[in-house]
Each structure stands twice: as structure tokens, then as C-alpha cells.
Amino acid sequence: MGGRQVQLRIGGQTYRVVTSASDDELHRLTLMVEEKLTQVAGPGRMVNPQALLLAALALAHDLEEERARHNDQMARTRIAFGRMLERVDAALGAIEPGADASDEDDR
Which residues form a coiled coil (predicted)? Predict the structure, then answer.
């Protein structure tokens, strides 16, 4: 696994990690973790390993909920597309074979 070594400061602690992520991505992710730490530990409180664990669990829970919403949306989208395809197939089946567009306008 290739990457560069960077230092991340989370919860008042510095962590050295090897990553291939961009600086912007690391900054965004660090802010997300910091925000979750503040939610679980409270603002200005000492961050201990238990708080980090709680933040990780809370983020995992958020991810699980988002995946469930995504899967639900995908299932509803598939059903809607299936219905649309059925309607298109029915409409195409109603057109007589060999009829051209000018014949359709006369109806």
C-alpha cells in the first residue's frame, strides 16, 4: 500500500498515519471526526480512548443508516423504472406493426 505519511490532530492528540488521500479529503474527514467527538464527549472536554471509540461507533451508525436509505432509494427507483418500462412496452405494443407516424396522426 503506497502513500505518504501525515500527522492528523484529532481530539487534542496527534496521530501519524500513512495515506493516499488528498489534503482536502483528510481535512474534511478530520473535521467530521472532531464534530462527532464534540457530540459524544461534549465541547471542551478531555478526549480519551473511550470518547474516540464512541465517535467511531456513532460514525459507523451514521454510515449504516445512510446505506440503508441508499438501498431503499435504489429499490424504489428500480420499481419505478420497471413500471415505466412496462408502460413503454404497453404503449409500443398498442402501435400496429408497420404503421408509420403519419397513420398515427390520423387516428
Answer: none
- Count of Cβ atoms closer than 10 Å to residue 11 Cβ: 19
Handedness of CA 45, 46, 50, 55 (dihedral sign): positive
Instruction: Report which secondary-structure segment, H or E, holds 106.
Output: none
CA 83 – CA 95 distance, rounded (Å) = 19
Q: How far apart are CA 23 and CA 28, in angstroms?
A: 9
| Beta pairing partners, 8 | 15
**Residues 67-97 pLDDT 10s:** 999 999 999 999 999 999 999 999 998 886 7
Beta strands in the chain (DSSP E): 4-10, 13-19
